[in-house]
Structure formats: C-alpha cells, structure tokens
Amino acid sequence: MKERVIYIDILRILATFAVVFLHSASSFWYTNPTTINWQFSNFYDSLVRWCVPMFVTISGALFLRDNKERSNIKSEYKKIISKNIFRILTALIIWSIAYKIYTDIVNNSAVLNKEFIKLFLKIFVYPIYYHLWFLYLIIGLYILAPLLKIFTKNATKQEVKIFLILFLTFGLGLNLANSLLEFFGFSPIYFNKNLPELGGYIGYFIAGFYFTNFTLSKKCRKYLYILAFIFVLFTITGTSLLPIHIKRTEILYQNLTPHTAFITFAIFVFVKDKFYHYNFSQKASNLIVKTSLLTFGIYLIHALVLDLLKKQRYLKSVILQIIRLF
Question: Is 121 helix (H, G, I), strand (E, B) or coil?
C-alpha cells in the first residue's frame, strides 16, 4: 500500500463527517430563530463550518508538499490532469447526471429528456446539486497547484507566513468587514474588490503546505487553540443574536472569514500534533486508511441520503438527525 500520512487521513475523515453534520443540521435554518430546533441547528452548524476549508487545506498539504524528486511544470501538469483532474471531472459528470435523474423523479419530470445535451453542457457552468460546487473549486485549485508549488518550493518560512497574514487580513478580514458593512446598510470597502487573489481559497491551500512543513511552538499552538475556541463561541452567539435583534444572516458561517480560518488551522495543527508521531497498530492504521478512501464517495452521496431521510420524515429535529446519523 502506498505510504500514507495518517494524520491527513484522520483530518479527511473528520471533515467528511463534519460535512454530513453540517447539512443535516442546516435543514432547520429557515425555521423560527426562537425555536429550540433552530438554536440546536445554529449550534451544530457553527461547530463544523471548518469542514470545506479543511478539505482545501488538506489538498494543499498533499499537493504542495516538497518531494525529493524534481520535475518540470509540463510533467507536473500531465500528472495532475491524468491522475487527479480527470478523476474529479469524471465524478462530477456522473454524479451530476445521477442527481439530475433524482430531482426529475422527485419533481415528476421527464427523466433525461431531449434537453439532456443542454444538461451536459450546464454541468460545465454551474453545479446541478448544492454540494457539488466543491468539485468545481477543487479542480480550479488543482489547475493552479503546479504554479503554487513553484512559490512554496522557493519561499522561506517567513515569506509563506507573510502571505498567510496578508490572506487573513486583506483577504478574509476585509471580506468579513464588507459583509458586515452591507448587512448593516453601509457601503463596502472598495479596496478589497481589487484583491481577489487574497480573498479566495488559495490561502487555505497554501496554509496546508505551511502547517504540514513547519511546526508551531507550543506557545503558538496554545494561543491558536484558545483563539479558535473563542471564535466558535463568537459564531454561535453572533448568529443566534442577529436574527433576534435585526435579521437572519449567514455572514458568520462563511468559509472565507478570519474566524473560520483560525478554527480550521487550529483543528489541523491539533490533529497533526497529536497523531504525527502516534504509533497506531496495523489494524487501526488500516481502518483509518480504508475509511479515508471512502470519504470522497461519502461526500458525493450524502446529500442524496439526507434528502431521502427528510422526505421520509425520519429527521424530525436536529437532535434526532444527529442520533440517527451518528
């Protein structure tokens, strides 16, 4: 079996379960914010909002790691297109068709009618089902990976750290500030509109490289964990209070915000710190690896399973959802 990075497999498993957790809890988002179901939904939602950023961070850790072998950018692209992008693109097409068939059946529409060719073309424009958007994102990051690897291979630790600080400040920080300004009726900060490179998922991708290749001091880890805990409380409390006093908003749930980033980084660093040198038994190691290999399939099918459960009225409250799924 190909050598695995076990703590990365553990992170992938945790992120996958967090996605299922998120989508099972979020079904009550549009109910009355004063109900217990909504409050539980907000609580669980806030706990696992790091899941998608974690997938991106994991991808960066794997794709940007410094291998001994040197290869030119042409061979890098040949490898990544044939091995990774082709796999994701194939899954995107197959599962888009599968979800289209499912929605047609649910809506009593004609299944794969003469508009099928148009559907096939639409797959390359927007996701057919809500969770498939991530596949578009990851394909884009894979396309950029060989170029980003040139930066990470030649940059010092300090230079990568500066990039992450800029990402957190001018990318995510201003993104959150603009969202809050617009929410309260003010004009957004124009400066941020000219820095899209710092406001996207590339920062998470490079963070995966940084936290994989460089170890934080014990003191830094401690502060990171405390900050992450505070930000979880901030997300829960802020999202709970805003709809009561003003109006409902998902601003604090966004993936591209500083607090979500710090929570993601804290979990990544914690799992790496605890399991990087942990001596798993062969049986436990095999179980982790096999479960990790199933996560992509779980991500693709979980939306269908959740929707079927909801339609059968099996998920009557957030608590019941968690009990049934976990």
Answer: helix
Query: Could you read off the pLDDT of 245-259 as tens digits, one per residue?
Result: 566 678 899 999 999
Separation CA 253–CA 232 (nearest Å): 10
Contact 234, 273 (CB under 8 A): no
- Tens digits of residue pLDDT in 117-155: 677 777 888 899 999 999 999 999 999 999 999 999 999
Among residues 59, 60, 79, the alpha carbon closest in space to that of 69 is found at 79
Q: What is the pTM of this model?
A: 0.90
Q: Give the DSSP H/E element, type plus range, for residue 319.
A: helix 318-325
Q: How far apart are alpha carbons 61 and 69 in whole angstroms?
A: 17
Instruction: Give the integer Cα–Cα distance in Å for 204 and 18.
Output: 17
In angstroms, the CA 169 to CA 167 distance is 6
Quote the CA–CA distance of 121 and 124 in Å, as a whole number. 6
